[in-house]
UniProtKB/TrEMBL annotation:
A Pfam short name: DUF1932
Keywords attached to this entry: Oxidoreductase
Keyword Oxidoreductase attached: yes
Residues annotated as domain Phosphogluconate dehydrogenase NAD-binding putative C-terminal: 189-258
6-phosphogluconate dehydrogenase NADP-binding domain span: 6-137
Name of the protein in its database record: 6-phosphogluconate dehydrogenase
Amino acid sequence: MMPATTFIGFGEAGRAFATAGARAFDHKTLHERERGAMLAAYDAAGVDGMDDAASALSGAQVVLSLVTADQALAAALDCAPLLGAGALWLDMNSVAPGTKRRAAEAIKASGGRYVDVAVMAPVLPARKNVPLSVSGPHAQAAVEALTLLGFANTAVAGRAIGDASAIKMIRSVMVKGLEALSAECALAADRAGVTDAVIASLDASWKAQSWGERFDYNLDRMMAHGLRRAAEMEEVAVTLEDLGVDPVMTRGTIAHQRDLGALAITPPEGLGAKLHAITAAGQKAPA
């Protein structure tokens, strides 16, 4: 039987996950300029749009929190007193584990059941087939509820609140970082008139390997040659500046290369051993 469901926040993700007959509340309905568009979105999705959170949450058994990241904690704090006993609060927002733990405290104090849910890929076009990582003491109950709502790719990441969001946040270091690096590289290549040559060179040198192997290789190079590479990247930064491209990502690269090289560690075999050596050396380094 379909649980009584409420969406708090009804942007792109809410509309992608919409379940006909569910209730929804988005604060944009309170703003005259945005109200019409939001009411139309409710109608198009077949949900019952409410004018306040209390009405939307009345009798709700499952709540999908899909607000913007900066509003995730505020939404939990504001809605916690309005939840019925035992209601599942599925925090699907992209925020830090610590933020989710603070939100969980408020939900638990009001008698709700908080669940950390990480959306692990773009919601479109996958919609309810998007992979979801779920964690917390009520993770299994959340998986069962999400399955009833039609979600088809859900897995438990751990028993602790923060386990799922830690995977999402740390993965984003690479995913969003590569996007930013790509932009910096492509803009510089375009302004230097060497885009095709740069792409060809990258295609020729990019190895097909697992991310574990890639991490291991990259750390090996940085530990062994970080100081020299930092000096080379200083010249890369000058190149970009001369082209009118702010080397934001390149400056970070310089710092990481220099810091790892300065540890003067002979790279041990294996990713785990390298990470342990770096952590141990960093703990011994003077403040």
